[in-house]
Amino acid sequence: MVVAELSPSYTKTSLHSSQLSFFSSRLSDHRRISLPRPQNGRRVVCSVASNQVQAPSPVQTEEAKTKGDCYGVFCLTYDLEAEDETKSWKKLINIAVSGAAGMISNHLLFKLASGEVFGPDQPIALKLLGSERSLQALEGVAMELEDSLFPLLREVNIGIDPYDVFQDVEWALLIGAKPRGPGMERAGLLDINGQIFAEQGKALNAVASRNVKVMVVGNPCNTNALICLKNAPNIPAKNFHALTRLDENRAKCQLALKAGVFYDKVSNVTIWGNHSTTQVPDFLNARINGIPVKEVIKDTKWLEEEFTEKVQNRGGVLIKKWGRSSAASTAVSIVDAIRSLVTPTPEGDWFSSGVYTNGNPYGIAEDLVFSMPCRSKGDGDYELVKDVIFDDYLLRRVTKSEAELLAEKRCVAHLTGEGIAVCDLPEDTMLPGEV
Amino acid sequence: MVVAELSPSYTKTSLHSSQLSFFSSRLSDHRRISLPRPQNGRRVVCSVASNQVQAPSPVQTEEAKTKGDCYGVFCLTYDLEAEDETKSWKKLINIAVSGAAGMISNHLLFKLASGEVFGPDQPIALKLLGSERSLQALEGVAMELEDSLFPLLREVNIGIDPYDVFQDVEWALLIGAKPRGPGMERAGLLDINGQIFAEQGKALNAVASRNVKVMVVGNPCNTNALICLKNAPNIPAKNFHALTRLDENRAKCQLALKAGVFYDKVSNVTIWGNHSTTQVPDFLNARINGIPVKEVIKDTKWLEEEFTEKVQNRGGVLIKKWGRSSAASTAVSIVDAIRSLVTPTPEGDWFSSGVYTNGNPYGIAEDLVFSMPCRSKGDGDYELVKDVIFDDYLLRRVTKSEAELLAEKRCVAHLTGEGIAVCDLPEDTMLPGEV
C-alpha cells in the first residue's frame, strides 16, 4: 500500500496533511484521493501524482471510500467562494452518467462540462459510471475532460459501482445498457437490461439526492425507467424520464421538410407511448407556424402512412450512411430534454418525455412509463399538458403502444417486485438502428 | 435529368418558381437546390424531396452550380430579418470544415451549430468537405445536424470539390488529412498531405472570402498551413493558423497538476514552434496565479525534463487507454482557438497559435508557420505578444523547432513554388497518438 505526500507547491493551499487518506487501488494510474469534508462543510480534495507517492501512515476515511475515485486535476483543491469570477456561481451540482465510456456520453459529457446545458454559472461535478471492461476507457474520457480546461467542470469521479458513483447525485443520466446479442428478442433485452436498471434504481434509492432527476436512455428505455423507479421507492416516481426527445426532434424535422418550412416553425409535437416502433409521433396536435399541421400538410396519406415510418427509420438510414449510430444527435436530444426541465417551456408549446402515468388526463393505463406532452416552469419538475385532442386514428395507435408497454411490464414483473414474469411480446419493436 | 416541383405547402413562402434550378446528381438522396440570389441580395433556397421531383424544363444557374449541394431541411426558405426572434441576429457566416465525416468534425460541427463558438446571435452556414469515399458519411452527418434542430444552423452544404465548398467562406477549418500509411516517414506524410493543402490553398484563393480565416488541423499542420498560404497569394498570410491549442491546453493541465492548483489558475502558456515533438511548451513565461511558474514549481528537473514529455505523450496515453485518438478534446481546442480570435484576449494573458513569421519580434526565421504567443481584440485578427523573455534553455529548444520547420519547408519546396524539394528530416517527430 502506498500513501500520499504533498507536492512542494501544495503548501499554497489550505489543505491539512492530517486530512490525507490513501487511495483505492482500483485505478491503474493518475489516482487521486477524495478527502473528508472539513468542519466548515466545504469539500477539500487533494492531488497526488503516482510518482510523488511515498511513506507516512495512511488515514482511510469512510467518506473517501464512498465518494468514488476522483480523477487527476479534478482532485485539486479549489474554493469557488473565494474567487471574484466564481463567487456568484450557483452551488455545484453532481451529475452521474452511466455508459460514460460510450459514444453518446463522449458527446454528452463535453456538453455538460462546457456549460451549454446548465448555464454559465453552474459548476458541475461529473460522476462517470462504467464497467470493469471500460475502466481504462473511462480514464481516457477523464483525461480528455482534463485537457479541455472547462472552467465550470470542477470534479470528475470515475467508478464501476453505482453505490459509489450515484452518491448525492442530483441528475442521473442512464445511458449505459447491454446491446442486443445475436438473435436476442426484446424480451431477452428487457431481462438483461432490466437487471442493470433494477440495481441502479436500488443504488439511486440508497445514495442519490432525494430529489434526483433520472433520465433513462439505455434501451428499452421506457420499461428500464419503470424498473428503475420501482426499485427506488424513496425517490418520487415523477422524477424518472425515458428519453423520447430524439424521436420528437426527428418528427419536427420531417414535418418541416414536408411543409417546406424551417424546423423552428414546428411546435407542439408529442411522441406518445413507447420508444419503439409502436411510438406515436402526433401530427394531430402538432403545429406549424402556430397552425395545426393538418391544415398545412394536406397530404393525409403521407401523415398517416409515411410520416411515422420516416421518423422511425431515421436511425437505420443513418447507420447505413454513416456507419455508426446517431451518438451526436442523441446527445443533443438529451441536452434538449434536460434543458426542457431546467428552463421554462415557451408559452403555448410543450415537449415529450416518457414519464410515469399516475393520474394522467388521457386515460392511459396507470403505472407505466409513457411518453406524453409535458410543460415545465424550469424548476426541474413538469406537468402534463391537458389541452390535447384525440381522434380515432391517434387513439387507436396510442392504445397499441400502451398495450405493448403493459406487455413489457408483465415481462419484467420479477424486476419490479410484482410477481412472476409472463412474456408475451409478439413482435420485435426495436427501432431501426438501435441496439 | 429531373427537375423540381414545389411541394403543396410551398406557396406559403415568398419563393418564385422562376428561381428554381435543377439539382446536381451527385448526392443519392435528400438532394436540394441552391437558388440564385434574388435582386435584393437575400439568399433564397428551396426544398424538394426526391419523391416530389417531376416534369418541367430545368433552369440551371451558375450560382446554383458553384454553391455545392445543400442538404435536406437546410435548403428551405427562411428570412431571418422577418422574424422577431432572429431579426437582431448578425449576418450569416459561412464556415467550411474539411474532413467533415471524421471524428474530430463529428464533435466540432455540433459545437459550431449550437452557438457555443460564435455566440447565440450568429447564424451559421456549414460547408462540409469530404471525399468521394466519405460522401455517404457526410450525408449521415448532415442528417444528424438536421435532427438536432439547432436554431442558428441555417444552411448545410456537402461536397467533395473544394472549389464548390469554399465558395464565400469566412472560416475554413481544415481538419481532413491523409493518415500515415504503414512505415511512412514524416517526409512522405508531408508530401501526400502537402498536395491536399496546396489544392485547398488554391481553392481558397479562388473562391473564399478575401478575409477568410484558415485553421489547419490536419498533420503536419504547420507545414500544411505554410503550403496552403503559399498557394493562396490573394489571402493575407496572417489569416492562416496551425492548431497548437490542444498542446497549450495540455500544458496548462500538467502545470496545474504539478502545482496542485486548478487549471484556471494557469495563464500565459506559449507553445513555441512546430506541432511535433520539437514543440516547446514554455514554462519560463507561463504563470500560475499570476506568479512565474518557476517561482511556484521549484522542481526544475521536472520542468526541464518531464513536463514537455508529459504534454507530448498525452495523445499516446489516451489512445492506449481509450482506444481512440483525442477527437473530443481536439474539437474543444479548435473551439478555443476560434474563440480566442473572435473575443478579446483577457488583459495580460495570451494564447498560442501557429502563425506566419513575418517581422516577428523574437528573431525566428521569417517565412515559416511557427507557434507563438498571440493576443486578439476579438476582431478575428491578432498581434504577437512582445513582452516575453528567453533564456538559453528556451532559446536552444525554440531554435531546434525552427530548424525542423526550415527542413520541412525545404522538403515541400515543390508545393510552395520555391523550386526542387530537398528532404533531410533526420527523425520521426510525429507526436504520439497522432496520425
From TrEMBL, chains A, B:
<dbReference type="GO" id="GO:0006108">
    <property type="term" value="P:malate metabolic process"/>
</dbReference>
<comment type="similarity">
    <text>Belongs to the LDH/MDH superfamily. MDH type 2 family.</text>
</comment>
<feature type="domain" description="Lactate/malate dehydrogenase N-terminal">
    <location>
        <begin position="94"/>
        <end position="241"/>
    </location>
</feature>
<keyword id="KW-0934">Plastid</keyword>
<dbReference type="InterPro" id="IPR022383">
    <property type="entry name" value="Lactate/malate_DH_C"/>
</dbReference>
<keyword id="KW-0521">NADP</keyword>
<keyword id="KW-1015">Disulfide bond</keyword>
<dbReference type="GO" id="GO:0046554">
    <property type="term" value="F:L-malate dehydrogenase (NADP+) activity"/>
</dbReference>
<feature type="domain" description="Lactate/malate dehydrogenase C-terminal">
    <location>
        <begin position="244"/>
        <end position="414"/>
    </location>
</feature>
<keyword id="KW-0150">Chloroplast</keyword>
<dbReference type="InterPro" id="IPR010945">
    <property type="entry name" value="Malate_DH_type2"/>
</dbReference>
<dbReference type="InterPro" id="IPR036291">
    <property type="entry name" value="NAD(P)-bd_dom_sf"/>
</dbReference>
<comment type="subunit">
    <text>Homodimer.</text>
</comment>
<dbReference type="InterPro" id="IPR011273">
    <property type="entry name" value="Malate_DH_NADP-dep_pln"/>
</dbReference>
<dbReference type="Pfam" id="PF00056">
    <property type="entry name" value="Ldh_1_N"/>
</dbReference>
<dbReference type="Pfam" id="PF02866">
    <property type="entry name" value="Ldh_1_C"/>
</dbReference>
<dbReference type="InterPro" id="IPR001252">
    <property type="entry name" value="Malate_DH_AS"/>
</dbReference>
<keyword id="KW-0809">Transit peptide</keyword>
<dbReference type="InterPro" id="IPR015955">
    <property type="entry name" value="Lactate_DH/Glyco_Ohase_4_C"/>
</dbReference>
<dbReference type="InterPro" id="IPR001236">
    <property type="entry name" value="Lactate/malate_DH_N"/>
</dbReference>
<protein>
    <recommendedName>
        <fullName>Malate dehydrogenase [NADP], chloroplastic</fullName>
        <ecNumber>1.1.1.82</ecNumber>
    </recommendedName>
</protein>
<keyword id="KW-0560">Oxidoreductase</keyword>
<dbReference type="GO" id="GO:0009507">
    <property type="term" value="C:chloroplast"/>
</dbReference>
